[in-house]
Write a structure and sequence with these properties.
With about 130 residues, this protein is of the alpha+beta class. The protein contains four helices and four strands, in the order βαβαβαβα. The structure holds flavin mononucleotide (FMN).
């Protein structure tokens, strides 16, 4: 349906970045925060069970933003742990939006390294069910 119910707030303003530190404990000093939100009122709704697709669309946008940034040689980190009402107050035009993700974008510090769990995956047979 191409309804595009997703909006991105690209935050670089130093005082807004400082204020955002008050609505999340996940602060990494990134100079750019891409806040991804969706507007359920604008989204496709599945007729069979009335499932609203806005959040799925926001997750797709967020993921591709991360891949595009990585492709430019930047690093990203998805933050979902924030106070959504508090974050919405710091950004313009958020009425009717559900804020889904705050993507930190920047250059990783020298000492930053993937956590021990970075490469851990559940077994493929548990992840995928073959239906032959
Ligand atoms: C949906 C989602 C929400 C997340 N929220 C946070 C968060 O609020 N704070 C945080 O420090 N990491 C959060 N993370 C984890 C990081 O984005 C990242 O996945 C983690 O540091 C591990 O890095 P790796 O995926 O490169 O191994 C979240 C990840 C996902 C997928």
């Amino acid at each position: 349906m191409n309804k595009q119910p997703v909006h991105v707030w690209a935050v670089t303003n130093p005082s807004t970045l400082e204020s955002i530190k008050g609505v999340t404990r996940s602060n990494y000093g990134a100079p750019v925060l891409l806040v991804v939100g969706c507007r359920p009122a604008d989204a496709w709704v599945r007729r069979y069970d009335a499932k609203n697709g806005a959040e799925v669309d926001a997750a797709i946008v967020s993921t591709y933003l991360m891949l595009a940034a990585e492709n430019e040689g930047l690093a990203t980190l998805w933050v979902g742990s924030f106070d959504p009402a508090g974050l919405a107050e710091l950004l313009p035009g958020t009425e009717g939006y559900e804020l889904v993700a705050m993507i930190n974008v920047g250059y990783p510090s020298e000492e930053s390294a993937p956590s021990a769990k970075h490469g851990t995956r559940i077994p493929m047979g548990e992840f995928v069910t073959r239906v032959d």
